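Today's session is about reading a structure prediction critically. Students often jump straight to the picture, but the first step is always the sequence itself: look for stretches that repeat, for charged clusters, for runs of hydrophobic residues. Only then move on to the predicted structure, which in these notes is written as discrete structure tokens rather than atom positions. Here is the chain we will use throughout the hour.
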Amino acid sequence: MRAGEELPPLEIPVTRTLIVAGAIASRDYQDVHHDPEAARHKGSPDIFMNILTTNGLVGRYITDHFGPRTELKKVAIRLGAPNYPGDTMVLRGTIEAVEGAGATVRIVGTNGIGNHVTGTVTFCLRDAA
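Below is the predicted structure for this chain, in token form.
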């Protein structure tokens, strides 16, 4: 692990099921995450992914890459372009800093509209038991 190293991209198909399941799993029952008619009534062309689902996918991206010893210390993200059904989100990461057994990774998740998520994830690798 070294600063400047790029992680391989992860493509995530954005399906209705993913959007709705993520909202339910995070107890976010806002209608814009499961009811297309309500979402349109509120100015959105369709339902869209909530931030908690995005946060979980960003965490998964890091733990899948660095393995089961990965302990997330801080996930700081900001949403941009919504993730709508039928699109694909591509997560990319670049290691910004390495300190001991830990690192900070700059994350960018893009979709067909633009940047869906940007931010950083700080983590450490726990010692093997």
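Discussion point for the tutorial: The longest strand covers residues 88-99.
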